[in-house]
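Re: Re: ligand-bound prediction request (bumping)

Still looking for help on this. To restate: I need the protein modeled with phenylalanine bound, output as structure tokens. Inputs repeated here so nobody has to scroll up.
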Amino acid sequence: MRIDTGHVFKLEDYRPSDYLVPRISLDFRLSPDATRVTTVLTVERRQGVTAAAPLVLDGDGLTLLDIAIEGHALAPAEYQATPERLTIPTPAAQRFELRLETEIAPSSNEALTGLYRSNNVYCTQCEAEGFRRITYFLDRPDILSVYTVRIEAAHSEAPLLLSNGNPVESGVLADGRHYAVWHDPFPKPSYLFALVAGALGKVAGSFTTMSGREVQLGIYVEPGKERLAGYAMDALKRSMKWDEEVFGREYDLDVFNIVAVSDFNMGAMENKGLNVFNDKYVLADEETATDADFANIEAIIAHEYFHNWTGNRITCRDWFQLCLKEGLTVYRDHEFSADQRSRAVKRIAEVRTLRAHQFPEDQGPLAHPVRPRRYREINNFYTATVYEKGSEVVRMIRTILGSEAFRAGMDLYFERHDGQAATIEEFLKVFEDVTGRDLAQFALWYHQAGTPNLTVSSSYNAAAKAFTLEIEQSVPPTPSESRKRLMHIPLAFGLVGAGGKPVAWAAVEGATVEDGVIHVRKRRHVVHFSGVSERPAVSLNRGFSAPITLSVQQKADDQFFLASHDSDSFSRWQAFNTLLTDALIAAFRQVLGDKEPAFAARLAELAGRIAGDETLEPAYRALALSLPGESDIARDIGKGIDPDAIFAAREALARTIAAANREVFSALYDSLADKGPFTPDAASAGRRALRNILLDYLSLLPEGAALAAAHFRGATNMTDRAAALTVLAHRHAGARQAEEALATFETRYRGDALVLDKWFQIQAGVPGARTVEKVRALTQHPAFSIANPNRVRALIGTFSSANQTGFHRADGQGYRFFAETVLEVEKRNPQVAARLATALRSWRSLEPIRQDKARQALLQIANADNLSADLRDIVERTLA
Ligand code: PHE
Ligand code: ZN
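Reply:
Sorry for the wait, this slipped through. Here it is.
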């Protein structure tokens, strides 16, 4: 392998820029192949900086057409311009106006960063470093400028012209052209700049803020799709209201616009006053979107809106601080969804996601702290660690301080740092200042990578009425951090007695215990509870109070007891999930030893009892019944992974549960059939989720394919239709009913790319060795496009990240196809290719034969010519 480390950016190298740009005006003359950009910067040398300091602006693939200072063209000796850099060695004045002209070609921009065209709509994506593909600039988040933007285009091509801030002027020009001017009074970093121009349909709304100002809301979509934006509009209004009520945050411009585009690298982008969305997270109705889609739309609309304060009004000093806006904003959107839906169910779903995406990252070669200290390519740090673990860290701050002090700290944060580019240290300081507490040890959550583990054992002495917990913490080594410091872990817990009642204690020593939380700060705590009158079962990490793993020596009886009686709904779910996981791991070992896997009868019985327990929400029951995924099981096993054996174990448990509960499951399945008209609310979605997981079990019994086929035919919404199609395709691959349903679905949604993504996704997920050929064939399907990120993620992303037996085919064909495809995607879109390539990050946990084949595929990528910085960074770290 050729190791070309490239430039490494280091946190400790941060220093403020010598120059500031308090104002910028941009003038775009749009045309698909030659867009002229005229930029006028007000440049100011910072106080105390020597006059000899050169002005160095960032560029990326730019050609400079013209340059002038204070109206005078510069002589060639007065500047140097390369595609990557514009240097003015000695600007004459402390403050001056710099005028630049560049020309760019949006239609040939397939990387989808900078200014590009999607479906004939001009749009921009500037985070993290896309602005420098438009014009030369100090393209870093601590340079805050007031933007005025003029856009000019042919009216026929782009009747709509949008940018950040408020509209100030528009007019008609000669030759069928027109223009609009936008002004954003809030100083912002360049990554929040946006422009959209094209022919789009509009859904209008309005919102009256807490101080009585009326804000005009607009959601722009492909013409004809307006009726699919209603749910997003409603979610936006609810988000605006919620941020006022829960965080006291009011919106600050006269307009708030959202545009849905069909080619987008990520989910959505929080540009000031002009959010740009992947259309997948805007468009929905019951015919085309699943309940999960509705929930995602609600969460992402909220997330981007919440960025207006956490990200835009207060931004990041540098990209090392990315979690300052992302972790905090994810925390805020999680809380929003918990308030809009069911808090208990939301929490379980969050933890499942964290474990599925962040844990493997933290436990593999790509591990990095929530606030990294090094990067080669910042685009590769929009990770589950920065987002999801970053959110958990904020949640722990609230757990430790209590909700009132947390809110007081947030208020101080907004007051103290409004209009600034801030750091994690400044964020933590507000909480220290409002409480007088020292968060130095806690801050390690930001600085240290790896998932901490707590080993816990307990004992009870009836005669002495004493209950003891022994807790030991360890943080595993991660790349470039072999020695770890001890963390402050807030471990919420409960002592649970007969019937699920809390067991009281008289006194406790050995650790600080407050409000049901043990503060683990040392390597080892022996926590003595005295005056405990019955032997309790201990419920640990309630509500998932810390993002850790637990190794608990606990009797299966206690685990069964907690799965039925724990009053903390998360821990109750967890107890059952742990029982399932333990059973699956034991079964995996039996399969490897050529034995038939066997399961304790009471496990299947408990599944039946949970399914039928009317005191539990249907959505909760659905989550409890959905078995740990194959990759969850793999993660818990740790090494020597043979995905086929895991699949066999999981399949055997599912069949056992189905067979043992046939009557209960079918009666319940029938009783949950949809009655009234469709509504996307959480309670209705929960009933559908429960019915669909029951279908999944029942489909394993005789006549299962017929049942699923009937479910498919009878479906009146996408949730049920997609669930039935998944059951047919995954459980009955090759059966006539499965083939028919796939064909029906394809015909019905032929013209709808977003819905066909589900069809690609379902087929890419079919377990077994034959899927790789199917996926390869589907890349030739007329609806597939290697240039569109949603298509690539649906087909290639699902196959490589969510199909354990298909991708990890023992002969390495899955990996080979994957390597070829990643390189194909990379030619156009390095960011999407790099993300796709993370699918192999856990290759070292595979059994030796697969491990070797996976490594060959990674080397094949690493050795390719002209690898982008994005992909090179991922493969080299993965192989290191
Ligand atoms: N900042 C966006 C968000 O989380 C994500 C994003 C990053 C989008 C980079 C595009 C490019 O809300
Ligand atoms: Zn975000």
